[in-house]
Write a structure and sequence with these properties.
about 120 residues; mainly beta; four-stranded antiparallel beta sheet
């Protein structure tokens, strides 16, 4: 049974930083690409970043490029999202997503995901 448990969300000021973590279990973590996606109130699910199964490749949505960094630790079955220079528009529920293959895909609507961790950016 796939389990994805996000943590690390909270309240940050504009320009601040947060680091999200995702603990994965129930599957062979290093065989699957992973992504982060987010959903703001009243909006649809939005892909944020992806990392290939062995971590060699990463991709980012334009609106986070240069500010967010996705990484993974395959020995610990952990996925991370370092978020810097946060903006109020980054406020959303952030989800850890297991992709169906070893390569990055930006379509994540039907993929396995956790319960999410709330990120609020406000002064």
């Amino acid at each position: 049974q796939v389990q994805l448990v996000e943590s690390g969300g909270g309240l940050a000021q504009p320009g601040g930083s947060l680091r999200l973590s995702c603990a994965a279990s129930g599957f062979t973590f290093y065989n699957f690409a992973m992504s982060w996606a987010r959903q703001a109130p009243g909006k649809g699910l939005e892909w944020v970043a992806g990392i290939s199964a062995l971590g060699a490749n990463t991709e980012y949505a334009d609106f986070v490029k240069g500010r967010f960094t996705i990484s993974r630790d395959n020995k610990k079955n952990m996925l991370y999202l370092q978020m810097n220079s946060l903006k109020p528009e980054d406020t959303a529920l952030y989800y850890c997503i297991r992709l169906p293959n070893s390569w990055i895909q930006r379509s994540v609507g039907s993929a396995e995901r956790g319960q999410g961790t709330q990120v609020t950016v406000s002064s």
